[in-house]
Amino acid sequence: MNIGKYIKQYSEDLRLKNYADSTISNYCSQIEIFLKYFDKTASKPSEISEKQIKAWLLQSKTINSRKHRLSAVKLFYALTGKQPLKLKHIEYPRSEKKLPVVLSKAEIQRMFSACENLKHKVILSLLYACGLRVSELLNLKWANIDRSRMIINIIAAKGNKDRQVMLPENLIPILENYWRAYKSKEYVLNGQYSLQYSETSVNQVVKQLARKAGINNKRVYTHLMRHCSFTHMVESGVDINLIQKLAGHANVKTTAIYTHISHNLISSIRSPLEDIRL
Predict the structure, then answer these.
(1) CA distance 34 to 216
(2) Model pTM?
């Protein structure tokens, strides 16, 4: 099977549909894994049966990875394989109902207090202040920060959509001090040897700050800062529809998860047990 040819064609088809570069990269990676798996048993994608595809999907370790695989393969057969009905009988798995365990505001404060490196403080501040995804943080340019309107423009985010988030007043002096110290070019975060910082480096910064802050009973990772940001907004009384716009969610139902995570909302509910003499 000429795997390279199919990957190239799939990439071009996705670009014609105006998919984001990150999506194209992820989907092409999945299809490369998919075609390599069947390389010895099929000479072209059309020879791979629905039964074989189901078995391959079931090898996924998590429901989310299975859904990701299925999305990539369905689109591949629809656009590139010219078999849009190939997977019509394979439905998306039911989503897991797991909720992220977020940090309290006190724990976030401990992370900031433990942060002595100016660049690391900028990373943590932008992630938490605006609920940015790591890709949005890495792609953030100085030109996207509009001090006259006190907003940050997020360009070509997930789904290739633009949106705006607020620029907190207390973040401005941190950004000014950071620029004077590092003088990063174009992108807010430059790498040591490249124009852009890496996702791995951001992950290391967040985990390192959590350790310094003594947060050992919760799993801390980059995307958790986004969850913390929106959960704390809910707890502060910010309207869920505004949070939806800040988060860039297509459906408010996605944003509603933060009302379920909020411990303040849950703990304020009066239990019927309180009317009982114990």
Answers:
(1) 38
(2) 0.72
For residues 48 and 31, is the Cβ–Cβ distance under 8 A? no
Question: In the Cβ-directed half-sphere of 132, how many Cα atoms lie within 13 Å?
Answer: 28
Is there a contact between 189 and 122 (Cβ–Cβ < 8 Å)? yes
Rounded distance between C-alpha atoms, residue 22 and residue 130, angstroms = 21
Amino acid at 129: A
Check if the beta carbon of residue 117 is closer than 8 Å to that of residue 174: no
In angstroms, the Cα distances linking 242 to 26, 165, 225, 278 are 30, 10, 18, 43
Spatial distance between the Cα atoms of 199 and 186, rounded to a whole number of angstroms: 18
DSSP string, 162-231: -EEEE--GGGHHHHHHHHHHH---SBSS--SSSSS--HHHHHHHHHHHHHHTT--SS---HHHHHHHHHH
CA distance 154 to 139: 9
What average pLDDT does this structure show over 72-100?
A: 87
pLDDT at 96: 66
**Residue partners of 56: CB distance under 8 A and separation at least 6:** 34, 37, 38, 69
Rounded-to-integer distance, Cα 263 and Cα 243, Å = 17
Strand order in the sheet with 145-146: 145-146, 151-154, 163-166
pLDDT band at 49 (very low <50, low <70, confident <90, very high): very high
Give the confidence band of 258 by pLDDT, cuts at 50, 70, 90. confident
Rounded Cα distance between 126 and 65, Å, is 28
